[in-house]
Amino acid sequence: MDAANWLYDAILYVYALSLLFYFSDFMDANRRARRVGAGLLIFVWVLQTAYLLIRIVHHLDLSEITAFEYWLGFSWLLVTISVVISRFFNIEFIVFFVNVVGFAVLALNLYSGGGSGASISSWETTRNLLYVHISLILCAYAVLTLGALFSGMYLFLHKQLKGKKWSDRMRRLPSLETIGRYSDRAVIIGVPLLALSLSVAVTSILVENRYALLLDWKVIFTFVAFIFYIVFVVQRSLGKWPALKLSQLQIVSFLFMVVGFFLNGLSSFH
Questions:
Q1: For site-directed labelling of 248, which of 154, 209, 239, 263 has its Cα 20 to 30 A away?
Q2: CA–CA separation, 123 vs 102, rounded Å?
Q3: Is pLDDT at 251 greater than 90 in this prediction?
Q4: 21 located within any domain
């Protein structure tokens, strides 16, 4: 796996270089820097995809899912989303912020060292269900991360406009209406994925007669986040809450999910 380790290091270095170019565009509206950053980002995606394939080849039995693979898949999804946005959508800054999160996850993932994770041997009856659950929850996390970033952007722009604080950087941001629309779309996609993943997880728990896991801290916080997202969807459809309040609720919902992320050490689920 020495070649794979070198590849992981290369991904980090190229990723960091891509972020530097995107940051240059963020500060000075440097379109040439943005193009170079986008090219490097595509290269990062290619390297990361190759690294994932190497991990899959070396773990064909999939006897365990480690924290390393879990976060590696999450980072890969963020890079994939940002590449798609960079290629097909003209939404300035969001690619930079998505990749700041993706790079942080990839760098922090080194601390897991590819160590042991949640063994699937105790989930033999529902092994396929667990694979489906992890795939769905990773997709949900990635899309809802994007939605939270849009909500944060909405809150920032709203505050700047209310205070009449104009700047060249603000002119490069989409309108509040556009940001709100993209934020809503992220929730519309992410919440069903989250609901499906939770339903599969509950099914796995019930089939295995491991009812104590329903009181697992990670499960509880994820369900609380899901409830908040449902409140968001209901209020958004009723049109009774202003967009500002909805953005704040989306941030709160996402924070509960983040807390769930960091409860792996206290969780016996996965």
A1: 263
A2: 30
A3: yes
A4: yes
CA atoms of 161 and 12, how far apart (whole Å): 37
Each residue's pLDDT tens digit, 96-112 = 888 888 888 887 776 55
> Which CATH number does the domain housing residue 45 bear?
1.20.120
Q: Please give the structure tokens belonging to residue 186.
A: 């992220």
Neighbours of 140 (CB within 10 A): 25
Residue in the structure block whose two tokens are 């990635």: 142
User: What are the tens digits of pLDDT across the range 210-222?
Assistant: 667 677 777 788 8
pLDDT in tens, 46-86: 999 988 888 777 765 555 566 677 778 888 998 998 888 88
- 41 is a domain residue: yes
3-state helix, strand, coil in the chain (%, to 5): 85, 0, 15
| Cα separation, 235 vs 57, whole angstroms | 46
φ, ψ at 131 (rounded to 5°): -60, -45
Structural contact between residues 14 and 37, judged by C-beta atoms closer than 8 angstroms: no
Assigned domain for 238 exists:
no
Range of the domain at 114: 1-119
120-125 contact pairs (CB < 8 A, 24+)? 120/62, 120/63, 120/64, 120/65, 121/63, 121/64, 122/208, 123/204, 123/208, 125/207, 125/208
Has residue 195 been placed in a domain? no
**pLDDT of 253 higher than 90:** yes
One-letter amino acid for residue 190 of the chain: G
For 92-150, how does the pLDDT look when each residue is reduced to its tens digit (9 = 90+)? 678 888 888 888 888 777 655 554 444 444 455 455 566 667 778 888 888 999 999 99
Domain count, the chain: 1
